[in-house]
Amino acid sequence: MKTYILTFLFLLFLFSSKAQEDRKDLIIIKEQGTFAVGGSIKKSEGIFDPIEHGAFNPTNQSTQGQTLHGDHASVLYQIPAEPRKLPLLFWHGYGQSMRTWQTTPDGREGFQSIFLRKGFSIYLLDQPRRGLAGQSLEPRMLEARTEDQLWFGIFRMGEGTKFYPNIQFSKDPEALNQFFRQSTPDTGPLDINLNMDAVANLFDKVGDGVLVTHSHSGGQGWGTVLKTNNIKGIVAYEPGSNFIFPETQVPDAIPYVGGILRARGVPMKEFEKLTKIPIVIYYGDYIPEEEVKNPGQEQWRAALLMARKWTKAVNDAGGDVTLVVLPEKGIKGNTHFPMSDLNNKEIAQLMYDWLKEKGLN
Predict the structure, then answer these.
(1) What is the pLDDT of residues 48-87, one digit of tens each?
(2) How far from 195 is each of 70, 78, 96, 280, CA to CA, in Å?
(3) What ranges make up the beta strands (E) of the chain?
(4) Contact, 286 vs 294, CB < 8 A?
(5) With contact defined as beta carbons under 8 Å apart, do 325 and 287 qualify?
(6) Which of 6, 211, 275, 290 maximizes the CB count within 10 A of its CB?
(7) In which residue ranges of the chain is pLDDT below 70?
(8) Exposure pattern of 320-356 as b/e (b: 16+ CB <10 Å)?
(9) What element of type H or E holds 113?
(10) Cα–Cα distances in angstroms (integers) from residue 140 to residues 143, 184, 185, 188, 201, in the given order
(11) Distance between CA atoms of residues 155 and 294, nearest Å
(12) What does the pLDDT look like over 249-300, one tens digit per residue?
């Protein structure tokens, strides 16, 4: 009998230990949901008659006296059981949506889950006229353009259809298929002021938090700081445009193969808001220091050069900007999407360590 009891207790211990281990892998969410923020309402002239105008006719539908709600941002949020003091608000880049942060093209956890596991409340947004916020108040003709290989190069995955050596992106064909299928078009004209207003409204609704940007939203992120006092720090992955300088210190435009990168100027009093919060900028691999013939690399050479000028301008004014070029830290092979690369947990840990260092965790 004693042997049976000991065996039972041993099995109970094993099962309870396994249950505890399984529980460690769980993400416990206290609250989650979706909402729209920002935007406006468009109204047609006249008076709506529910009898005369109430039947749906896709070829001849009167809009008389009716309204259209649009130009808002769409937000998905998750709050863990024991949240840290500051949430993270993630903003995607050009041609992308919140999927940038949700999972990797090869099916691993993205920053959404990685940082939920670290105890952060997460807000993912689709900017106005993009993704789940596609209801635009201004029309735009959408084109089905064959551009996959163009973006393969601009996102520094490789040239044409050939990956760069030692790339930190899965070479499984299905991963690349999934990556291309996460792109989404603008359903209306791109309006950065509209986008910045929506994100500022999001911070006004949520309160204090840290803004995490990628690529095109990087420059919009600087501008959003000028519109709200609730951004307490910024993590910017590969910002590519709209660097803001004091209006008397705007650097010369930087030409590159395929274009010209220009900075924006604002009054010094506005610029100084950027000096009041900690900021970190990350750039990946395959960015040349000197001019090259490859347009996909060239625009990032210009962006990194402008980022260095911008970092100096902010820090000279008393700010706190850290510029990290990953290969210089021995982290090699990252594309324009380090949050999706094979080493995305290592990239996330760098971000977490910075948040902790700056007291933003």
Answers:
(1) 999 889 888 887 789 999 999 999 999 999 999 999 999 9
(2) 12, 22, 14, 22
(3) 29-43, 67-80, 88-91, 122-126, 158-159, 162-163, 209-214, 231-237, 244-246, 254-256, 259-261, 264-266, 278-283, 320-325
(4) no
(5) yes
(6) 211
(7) 1-23
(8) ebebebbeeeebebbbbbbbbbbebeebbebbbebbe
(9) helix 111-117
(10) 10, 14, 10, 5, 25
(11) 12
(12) 999 999 999 999 999 999 999 999 999 999 999 999 999 999 999 999 999 9
Q: Which residue has the tokens 């900028």?
A: 281
- What domains, with CATH codes, occur in the chain? 30-39+73-357 (3.40.50.1820)
Give me the sign of the Cα torsion angle 211, 212, 214, 218: positive
pLDDT attached to residue 39: 97
Long-range Cβ contact pairs of 130-133 (< 8 A, separation 24 or more):
130/92, 130/97, 130/184, 130/185, 130/186, 130/187, 131/74, 131/92, 131/97, 131/98, 131/99, 131/184, 132/34, 132/74, 132/97, 132/98, 133/36, 133/72, 133/73, 133/74
Q: Shortest CA distance to 132 belongs to which of 34, 38, 220, 198?
A: 34
Do the strands 209-214 and 88-91 form a parallel or antiparallel pair, or are they unpaired? parallel
Length of the chain: 361
